[in-house]
Specification:
The complex is a heterodimer of chains A (about 120) and B (about 120).
Chain A (H helix, E strand, L loop, with lengths): L2 E3 L4 E5 L4 E3 L2 E3 L6 E6 L5 E7 L5 E3 L5 E5 L4 E6 L8 E8 L8 E3 L3 E6 L1
Parallel strand pairs in A: 2-12
Antiparallel strand pairs in A: 1-4, 3-9, 5-6, 5-10, 7-8, 8-9, 10-11, 10-12
Chain B lengths: L3 E4 L2 E4 L4 E8 L5 E7 L6 E7 L2 E5 L6 E7 L2 E7 L7 E8 L12 E2 L3 E5 L1
The chains are: A mainly beta (about 120), B mainly beta (about 120).
């Protein structure tokens, strides 16, 4: 079965420090992976996606993610965290089951950047 | 804003009421989605419409009834809901090109916070 896991409910990081939000996946075939962010009282906003090519994907607001096939991971990273990065982050994978148009989301990781 | 609007933003209803949620996208997309977001649970896909045709129904109870009159509008009709249906309901849209695999990016609305008493 296709799945995605975000092992941390919450990540705390000091402003200016690098941040990592973890995501691992399980799919059959090539994975198509996404990161979204949700600010309070807002819908999800797209950050970046990996389809093919370079394992390091750059996205919005200075975020990037590293695709690691051997570890089946797609961790979200940022070199220097801002207080305004505090939000709920979701990893998602395209369900490649034939005939389906689903995206499978993780449970989300709450990022708190402390001033 | 992402170009996807949802109304109302908040809704409180009794278990015997009938109400509808509305979603509208201004992005020229051809696929639309309903998701349910509950605390501490993964985002749950409910329905998918592709070119106004329903392509996914993720085992959603019949008290939820979707309607997609055109590729810009999506409704979720609610009747005889249960308290456990209280959640944030998110609409999304994407541009699906012909042929697979589909890797289109979804654009989400702000959601409707539904409370069932």
């Amino acid at each position: 079965a296709q799945s995605v896991a975000q092992p941390e409910d919450q990540v705390n990081v000091a402003e200016g420090n690098p941040l990592t939000v973890k995501c691992t996946y399980s799919v059959s075939g090539n994975p198509y992976l996404f990161w979204y962010v949700q600010y309070p009282n807002r819908g999800l906003q797209f950050l970046l996606k990996y389809i093919t090519g370079d394992n390091l994907v750059k996205g919005s607001y200075g975020f990037e993610a590293e695709f690691n096939k051997s570890q089946t991971s797609f961790h979200l990273k940022k070199p220097s965290a801002l207080v305004s990065d505090s939000a709920l982050y979701f990893c998602a994978v395209r369900d490649m089951t034939a005939g389906t148009y689903k995206y499978i989301f993780g449970t989300g990781t709450r990022l708190k950047v402390l001033a | 804003e992402t170009g996807v609007t949802q109304t109302p933003r908040h809704l409180v209803m009794g278990m015997t009421n009938k109400k509808s949620l509305k979603c509208e996208q201004h992005l020229g997309h051809n696929a639309m989605y309903w998701y349910k977001q509950s605390a501490k649970k993964p985002l749950e896909l409910m329905f998918v419409y592709n070119f106004k045709e329903q392509t996914e129904n993720n085992s959603v109870p019949s008290r939820f009834s979707p309607e997609c009159p055109n590729s810009s509008h999506l409704f979720l009709h609610l009747h005889t809901l249960q308290p456990e249906d209280s959640a944030l309901y998110l609409c999304a849209s994407s541009l699906r090109t012909s042929g697979g695999p589909y890797t289109d990016t979804q654009y989400f609305g702000p959601g409707t916070r539904l409370t069932v008493l």
